[in-house]
Specification:
This protein has about 200 residues and is α/β, with parallel strands linked by helices. The protein has 9 helices and 7 strands, in the order αβαβαααββααβαβαβ. A 7-stranded mixed β-sheet has the order 3-4-2-5-1-6-7, with helices on both faces. β6, α9 and β7 form a beta-alpha-beta unit. α1 packs across α2.
């Protein structure tokens, strides 16, 4: 949010890299994931989304990490037991659960109430339809997912989203885990646009 900070400039550089690397495809759905928990993917999601919105792109942060949701805390949003999962369950309408944030042009769709089977929830046709509907309303949808190696959620999301960014953490992510995560994404047909080395 401090637009003159070194960190803000770093995320603007990342935004430029994404936009220029994807200039022909103009992908709307961007998945951000990492090999393991604690690599910083959630921070990358929120700040990349802010940078996108500040560039005039109508942007949505889609919190698809049902296992450890953090975007609602970052943006100070209370999901009120309403969000992605309640829309998928047919309990709420999509338009009524999307929240505005303190950043102009940036909206948030929290994951909503806990679900017992996150992988199956994301694998259904209903989620695919919601993503297609959102892609008609937003220039960019930045999707926050669980890490690749512990659970299958990220692979499911990567097969649906148009591009994927893999976040590694310096002095933490190992060569083996990073390669395994990359290979797992490629196996489901993910288009891995690039890697962010965090911290």
């Amino acid at each position: 949010l401090d637009s003159k900070s070194v960190w803000a400039e770093t995320y603007r550089t990342m935004r430029t890299s994404v936009l220029f690397s994807d200039s022909k495809a103009k992908s709307r759905t961007i998945l951000v994931t990492s090999p393991q928990a604690g690599d910083g993917k959630t921070t990358v999601v929120s700040n990349l989304a802010i940078a996108m919105a500040q560039a005039g792109q109508k942007t949505l942060v889609l919190e698809a990490d049902f296992r450890r949701p953090m975007q609602n805390r970052i943006f100070g949003a209370n999901h009120d037991n309403k969000g992605l999962s309640s829309v998928l369950a047919g309990a709420d309408e999509l338009e009524k659960v999307i929240k505005t944030t303190c950043v102009p042009g940036l909206d948030l769709l929290t994951c909503g109430p806990d679900v017992t089977n996150p992988s199956e929830t994301l694998h259904g046709e209903s989620f695919n339809q919601i993503l297609k509907l959102l892609a008609k309303q937003y220039d960019r949808i930045i999707v926050d997912s669980p890490p690749v190696l512990p659970v299958t959620d990220a692979q499911i999301l990567a097969s649906i989203c148009q591009i994927t960014i893999l976040v590694l953490r310096a002095e933490k992510s190992t060569r083996k885990a990073s390669q395994q995560a990359h290979d797992a994404l490629l196996r489901v047909g993910a288009r891995v646009l690039g890697v962010v080395v965090n911290d």
